Amino acid sequence: MSNRDVRIALDYHEETKHSSVSIRLKPHFLDWSNRPYPFKVYTNLPRIPLPQDFPKPGEDTLAALACRAKPSQKTKPMDISRLAELLFFSAGITREIRYPSGPIYFRSAPATGALYPTELYVVNGEIPGLEAGVYHFDPGEFSLTQLRSGDHRAALAEATAGNNGVLRGSVSIVLSSLGWRNAWKYQARSYRHWFWDSGVIAANLLATACSEGFSPSVIIGFNDSQVNQLVGLDGRAEAAVAIVTLGGEVGSGVAAPIREVAPLKPNVKPLSKYVVEYPEIQKLHDASSLGSGEEVAEWLSAAKQPLPRDAPAGAGRPHPLPASAESSSPLWEVILKRGSTRRFARAPVNVVQLATILDRARSALPADFLPDAESSLLDIYLIVNAVDGLPSGSYFHRWRERSLDKLKDGQLRRVAGHLCLEQELGADASIVFFLMSDLNSVLSRYGNRGYRASQFEAGVMAGRIYLAAYALGLGATGLTFYDDDVTEFFSPHAKEKSCVLVVAVGVPAYKARPGKILVGRIKHTMSAN
Ligand SMILES: Cc1cc2nc3c(=O)[nH]c(=O)nc-3n(C[C@H](O)[C@H](O)[C@H](O)COP(=O)(O)O)c2cc1C
Predict the structure, then answer these.
(1) Ligand 1 centre from 342 Cα, in Å?
(2) Is the pTM of the predicted complex or chain greater than 0.85?
(3) Cis? peptide before 492, omega within 30° of 0
């Protein structure tokens, strides 16, 4: 199957659309007795406890999201404590809530359905406190499991056509998706979630790394089977989705020469009693895989071509956005405070808050699939329900000009709720952000791999919107949506675009308690569930 056969991504997208008819015709009932275990546990490999007194990312959240290195800022050396900090503030446990069906361990980043399909792997040169190797991160026990010993950065670099950040940086993090954990609830549509859920984790990871003065960057173009083999994945039940390099080559120097990467056959605790496979997911995953160094290099060089400019101006008068806020709270506080808002008060936010969230959503994203960090595969459309200083209606974000084009006037709460799969959260929020992409042009540029890139970028953008909203004292939640109704609502402006993800922002209707640093409190049993 070829990455260039983009019919496969288009068909998948079409078949997994939600509409008010599809959700009524195809209801799905959850088998709670078969709920997947939310942690990956190796039964036959040694675990290394991570330090629990790690530093906290203290940079102002709005600055960390913008990730502008200050001239005075020096990269701090990477060591095991800083690695523990990066892992905790991206994927650590911040809340434990007990339900009749069992506890749910909520994490520092959001996740569709609180199912946490994303696993994190560390590929590192030697750093103080940790020998060079390949490790799996377990947020439950707050430990690393060593999968390989020795410096394997050159092997990871080879799989990325020689990425310099992988080769010279002391640590890279591979994010994977353990598909069944999410497919249990979301079925075939869950392939989109592979990228949303890893993207929001990447948003936390990028901000935490920036807070510590690293220069992180994202890799989507890699030889799938090489990366999967390196971290011991079969590429079916679980597969690598993205790599985040952290930069900051201090300590471990350039990678040791490449070494042989023998297959790993680790024993892993079963996720649940049985697994349902969704062939449409495997089909698109295979068809969006890159299979050789040449294919990766060719893909990366296509990605370096400039992207088309913004869409033509909307019919209405442009609304210039005010300067954004520059100071908020330290990143660690905001990450602990973050949670998805479950009920919004129908109260207004102000236009500076809106401008700040848009700026941080569109902060530079250093990524191999973008020609430069300021580019994006996404456009932001909005429904403004209640923003002081801005009339209610729908808008298109013209990010280069920092302005909004008005598309439709009026009170649109009812339609906002409908578009968000009839969820009240969309109607009650002050602003609903619709992250949209011209799928045909993305696929013609990147092949099926562009499907992964645009969904992942939407996850990062959503994660940044969450953090910016909480930094400003507001609340947020990701939302799913009725695909074609969103396009139709924003047409003719958006007639070529597909909705990729939605985030609602507003004033929470209740006061939530902040999360905590909950480390090392789970002891896994080895049987299923
Ligand atoms: C991409 C994405 C989509 C989401 N979609 C919905 C949704 O449609 N409805 C909803 O109530 N919550 C949605 N959520 C919120 C999750 O349910 C929430 O993140 C999860 O329960 C974990 O809780 P927390 O965010 O409070 O840590 C979404 C979250 C993400 C990241």
Answers:
(1) 9
(2) yes
(3) yes
